[in-house]
Amino acid sequence: MSDTATAQDEEPKEPLSAEEQMRERRAAAYRRATRVLARMGLRAPLRERLARLQEAAPEVYDLDEPSDLYGNGVVEALERRVAALLGTEAAAFFPTGTMAQQVALRCWAARTGNPTVALHALAHPEVHERDAFREVAGLRTVRVTGEPRLPTAQEIRDFAEPFGALMLELPLRDAGFVLPTWEELTELVQAARERDAVVHFDGARLWESTVRLGRSLSEIADLADSVYVSFYKSLDGFGGAALAGPKSLVEEAKTWRHRYGGMVFQQFPTALAALIGLERELPRLPDYVRHARVVAAALREGFAESGVPWARVHPGEPHTHQFQVWLPYDADVLMEAAVRQAEETGTYLFTSLWDTKGPGLSMTELTVTAAGLEWTAEDVRAAVADFATRLPAAPRWGRGELREQPPTTRTRPAGVAGALSVAGCTMGT
Asked: Residue 126: left if φ>0, alpha if ψ -120 to 50, beta else—which one?
């Protein structure tokens, strides 16, 4: 067959949609950017991720040992390390946090005789897990509050119906990665105890909570009856999670892990990546948290100096190394500005997706890791000033005085709505 015939027989490729084009532009901009606030392993090529694993693995485990089979070997070593860090009797490795928390809470439900789990309306199982607690684990959830903060002790004491377990997400990601103070947390746990409820911490990002709470990981974990932690959200691992707590609970959880299909034949790459994260990233997280506060303050100053009509960094002083930025533009406008800045300058300030929260109002999440430590406050302000030049003319409800409030939505945190209601305010605290 001739080359001409072959070419004629090939079906023409369909043009990429606008969404696909933006996805490709974002990926290319991230790869080529010379300056970002965070370099995430999950966005690196496979070759690079495997090379990093091979380079770092000898630091955390004897590679002459046999590979793991059904949760022994390096997986057991990881479980022991987590239990030691959290000060618990035992820990069990799980392939996902969704599985780990279902297992933990169904175990507690059997012990308390009450399948009701009290949690926040923005807790991960309520927002991101397609009703898995109810549909798979047979649990019932009740929402203590929907405010962009952790529940209060008084809300727990006043809640109108009994519950067997209180689940607290530390930090609460969808509210802005927010944490209570140590005093608020201890009082909150005590209030649950007064109601004869067990306390489970959704600690997917517990690792970076020590700075605001002012306590060690073991002191924090000691407040709860059980704790789940993730190995990829902050530690840059490949995936995986652990459930930590009393030995009797962990042993029961391992039985349910098997029943749920979590008894994976081999998991050494994930376990090794988790151990590397505990060795390399965990000690650096406090530095990331402290520098996130510098970045957040510089962002606020930069938007004010650039004349952006209303901008919000939430929380005003980040509780962890992650926080939210809210701007009065549609998501596609902000995405285009962010990618174009990266393409033209090599500086990719806002690498995450922008999420529309209402007409003309969007939010993105910022993370500060090792790459972000290189940014000074002046670097951030300069990047904001350049980003602002790529935005369209300001909405008429801006420019120093909020003459017209944007529509409110159910998903916008109350703190943001409160900032909007203050006339003459260019940004909230």
From this structure: alpha
- Please, what's the b/e burial string for 389-416 (b: 16 or more CB within 10 A of its CB; e: otherwise)? eebeebbebbeeebeeebeeeeebbebb
CATH code, 50-280: 3.40.640.10
Give the CA-trace dihedral at 189, 192, 194, 197, to 10 degrees.
-130
Q: Which helix (H) or strand (E) holds 169?
A: strand 165-169
Residue 96 CB-density burial (10 A; 0-12 exposed, 13-18 middle, 19+ buried)? middle
Domain boundaries, the chain: 50-280, 285-420
**By the 8 A CB rule, do 68 and 268 touch?**
yes
Q: How are the residues of the chain apportioned to helix, strand and coil, as percentages rounded to the nearest 5?
A: 45, 15, 40
Architecture of domain 285-420: Alpha-Beta Complex (3.90)
Amino acid identity at 131: D
How far from chain centre, in Å, is Cα 193?
A: 28
Residues 176, 177, 179, CA angle at the centre, nearest 5°?
115
Q: Cβ-count burial of 260 within 10 angstroms (0-12 exposed, 13-18 middle, 19+ buried)?
A: buried
88-122 residue pLDDT tens: 999 999 999 999 999 999 999 999 999 999 999 99
Residue 423 CA to residue 429 CA, distance in Å, equals 14
Residue 21 in tokens: 């084009």
Distance between start and end Cα atoms, the chain: 70
Among the listed residues 278, 228, 277, 275, the one whose alpha carbon sits nearest the alpha carbon of residue 68: 275
Contact 317, 334 (CB under 8 A): no
Q: What is the DSSP string of 53-116?
A: HHHHHHHHS-TTSPPPSTT-THHHHHHHHHHHHHT-SEEEEES-HHHHHHHHHHHHHHHHS--E
| Token reading at 272 | 């090794």
Structure tokens of 201? Answer: 């911490």
Closest CA to 322 of 368, 353, 363, 355: 368
Backbone phi and psi for residue 53, each to the nearest 5 degrees, phi listed first: -65, -45
Q: pTM of the entire structure?
A: 0.89
Tell whether the model's pLDDT for residue 6 goes beyond 60: no
pLDDT tens digits, 291-308? 999 999 999 999 999 999
Helix ranges (DSSP H) in 208-330: 210-213, 217-222, 247-259, 268-280, 285-305
